[in-house]
Here is the input.
Amino acid sequence: MMKLLLLFGSVSMTALASTLLKIGSRTINFDGGLWTIAMGYLTSPGVIAGFLSYGVAAVLWVYCLSVFDLGYVTFVASFQYILLLAVSIFVFNEQISLLKWVGCGFILIGVICWLKG
Here is the structure.
């Protein structure tokens, strides 16, 4: 059970990292030169937290690769799309088309079938 929690923790940390990077990217001036953009990355708390979250997710991911089959962890990682859909709606107030909902439904059904099979 703990191994599964770590796997879903890795997937959740990846979704969190994407969310933090999007939030942090709003504070960066992309109109400047390379130095200005680099300094924006280095001084944005959201970007720094996003990269740290990716680091934690990577450590968990490597552990999960050592205890589960590659096909299993890779397929479970697709659950990230569902998490990011929720973030898109609840955090960023983005509109999700019907076709995207259908696609996410297929992903969720696939993950459930894979876990049961």
